[in-house]
Amino acid sequence: MCGFRLSKDMRPVGTAQELERRRRDAVELMRRGESPTVVARTLGVGRTSLYRWLALAENSPEALAAGPHPGPRPRLTDQQLREVQRLLLEGARSHGWPDDLWSAGRVAELVRRRFGVGYHVEHVRKILRRPLRWSSQRPQRKARQRDEDRIAH
């Protein structure tokens, strides 16, 4: 099998159902008298996991169920995202840029300065779009010779 071990914080690959099925299979094989070393090698798990699963199954068979993978922990809290929203509403000029145009690069720089968290520009676009619900818009260019008074007349 594989020659590496997972750290405590890593989760093995597979859906929640596959992980649960593997745990139940391991417990069943151990109860039938199969060698823990053989079971561990066959299923690609550590022997300590086998004994832990066996103890869990003795107390409650439901304890072997695996939950969905939570995904990575966000680097900005909900409160920090609200703070980013507030800062963006102040305008880019108030944060040192020459105009009030917020680009993803500028927002990434603002987040880095304010919270010490570095994001790739493309990820900042996702943050702006999803949790903050800001849309990407390109500024409209106006002709230099445009005469607002004549247009109004």
Describe what this molecule looks like in 3D.
The structure is a single chain. This protein has helices spanning 16-31, 36-43, 47-59, 78-89, 104-115, 121-129, 148-152. Residues 1-7 have low confidence and may be disordered. Among the domains are: 16-64; 78-129, no CATH class. It is built from seven helices and no strands. It is mainly α and 153 residues long.
List the helices and strands and how they pair.
Layout: H1 16-31, H2 36-43, H3 47-59, H4 78-89, H5 104-115, H6 121-129, H7 148-152
Helix pairs in contact: 1-2, 1-3, 5-6
Which residues form runs of ≥5 with pLDDT under 50?
1-7
Largest sheet: none
Proportion of residues in extended strands:
under 5%
Q: Structural class per helix/strand content? A: mainly alpha
Radius of gyration: 27 Å
Quick summary:
Helices cover 49% and strands 0% of the residues. The protein is mostly helical and 153 residues long. Among the domains are: 49 residues; 52 residues, no CATH class.
List keywords for this structure.
rod-shaped; 153 residues; 49% helix; disordered N terminus; single chain; mainly alpha
